[in-house]
């Protein structure tokens, strides 16, 4: 066969035969991380390797998939479609492990849970133990992350379910309350307001503040930001963290006042380390919920875990 005929034959091969399927994973990681640098770190390769993979993928697809605006990467319209396809492929690949298990075992597979720090629940602990005894061949993969990351992992179908904080209005996301939470202001025994019983809310408006990273407009704890703004707080935000126990550490250190769920602060209050500030009734409710994507195709292990967890918490 002549060289021209070989080249022509290769060109006519369908895309699925020519495509390097590994590039789907690289592309998905770039989208998730929103950065070539972060994608390289997650994949344990160099930035140039990630950039070259993206370029090869675009060449094989025949379209520009991402554009760079300064330090930001954004998807083109074709890139959005390819990303959705890659997520569908990822969902199907996740089912391979379950499909290849011994069919004699009734339920096998993996359940990935993205969750915030600070979720303490005897009922949840009991559920996990009971679930493992009932389904010993289902493995759990638990990732601790910020409230916003929990939501994104659920929206993007990277997790089987999430446990965290949520506002209503996310398309295809359903949720169920696991733990009601009431947030209030606290200061530590090192703070000048500690032990004061004569305080009113006007006394704390100018105090430096320790904030959750999700305590911003548009984020899961934005109701705290709304409360501060509506009451005219003028103190500086001097420290922030997505982790409730780091927030408590910062408050205990006397860096500033801050918000904590009452049930997490109570031990330190009883121990004389924290002092509840006005208003005494607290400021906002921000319940811990389980959330799942009702459009995600779920394995039997994932479906059973979600349904049994929902039944375990009657609210």
Provide structural commentary.
The chain has 315 residues and is of the alpha/beta class. It folds into three domains: 3-94, Arc Repressor Mutant, subunit A (Orthogonal Bundle); 103-170 and 299-310, 3-Layer(aba) Sandwich (D-Maltodextrin-Binding Protein, domain 2), CATH 3.40.190; 182-285, Periplasmic binding protein-like II (D-Maltodextrin-Binding Protein, domain 2). It is 43% helix and 21% strand. The protein has 13 helices and 13 strands. It has helices at residues 3-12, 15-18, 22-33, 36-43, 47-61, 77-94, 96-100, 122-134, 147-155, 222-231, 244-252, 262-270, 300-312; strands at 66-69, 72-75, 109-115, 138-144, 161-164, 173-179, 182-188, 209-212, 237-241, 257-261, 274-276, 284-285, 288-293. The strands form three sheets. Strands 7, 8, 9, 10, 11 and 12 form a six-stranded mixed beta sheet that branches. The radius of gyration is 25 Å and the shape is globular. The model is unreliable at 1-10 (pLDDT under 50). Belongs to the LysR transcriptional regulatory family. It holds the Pfam family HTH_1.
